Amino acid sequence: MSLSGISPARIDAAIDKALADRRIVGAVVLVAQGGDIVHRRAAGHLDREAGVAMREDAIFRLASITKPIVAAATMRLVEEGRLDLDAPVTAWLPDFRPALPDGTVPEIRLRHLLTHIAGLSYGFLEPADSAYHRLKVSDGLDQPGLTLHDNLSRLAAAPLAFAPGTGWRYSLGLDVLGGVLERVEGRGLADIVRDRVTAPLGLADTGFSVRDAGRLAKPYADGTPEPVAMTDGVRVPFFDTVATFAPSRILDAASYPSGGAGMAGTAGDVLTFLEAIRTGGAPILRAETVERMASDQVGTEAETQGPGWGFGHGWAVLVDPAPTGTPQAAGTLQWGGAYGHSWFVDRANALTVVALTNTAFEGMSGAFPAEIRDAVYGRVSTS
Fold this sequence. Notes:
The protein is an alpha+beta fold. It is about 30% helix and about 15% strand. The protein has 11 helices and 15 strands. It has an 8-stranded antiparallel beta sheet with strand order 3-2-1-14-13-12-11-10, sandwiched between helices. A hairpin with a 6-residue loop joins strand 5 and strand 6. The protein is globular and about 55 Å long.
């Protein structure tokens, strides 16, 4: 569909309703079209208990917004000829050999990790009696101080859900890929991502640590009659399962840099990164690399965000809008973050929307993302 006449008042009304309904505590929403920011708003509270208002330069725990940033660093190494996505993971991590339930050990390739077709999973997607929970596999959101070596050892001991390349399941693949990048470069993932992505883009507040803790948004979990402040070990219902969070993880320098969930940053930094992707990748990637990343790699049968959605390198890709009910155009890139975030890039309409909240899971998978989306496109939300 074509898009014109974005209404800031309509977007503000969606934000105000979520705050009035006490579904979210605070949010920063940025909307850019054609490279110009057409709406920006910080609303609600950075820290409700302390009475601190949300600010536009608030730093959020980004959770899975980490993934596209690490994917970009990975593809930069591919461009440089230092990585081959068809290479086996064991070329760099020889001990990472998870087996299928029948005991066979298949070959996992780097592209399997990047597109979530390796047969790995997340603990928050697994039942309480699963191997992930028995082995105490971290989702990259909990267990402050855990090392990458220890977590990959635990993950390798859990059975694969399917043979690599035969299914799709959202997973810790980017955490494993982070370990590969560290072996390739001989240094930490935080330094690799800084040099390949965040520094060239001038993203001063985005990394695997927090530069200014005074701007760090206090996280909240869904609750009745209002969201509840998170503490380490809090367990938050997620559809039929439960996710465990440890907000202190980002402040513990001993915590491994989770390639799938470990970064913190601002809405402005996220917008800058996504705008670089929308406009062809400069100065971090070549245009042909971005097109590769923005192409569906798994097929719409994966339903990565529902019918019509596939997956590329770092995000879901809208292949067919017809069965989705979304006003977004084909080719839209979209994902979110467990601490309460959503974003999308509608490339056909030169539109980028970033909505970071401090409320899990409403800000990621509740009604809020669709309400913001529909307000941007000027239609009544069906959420």
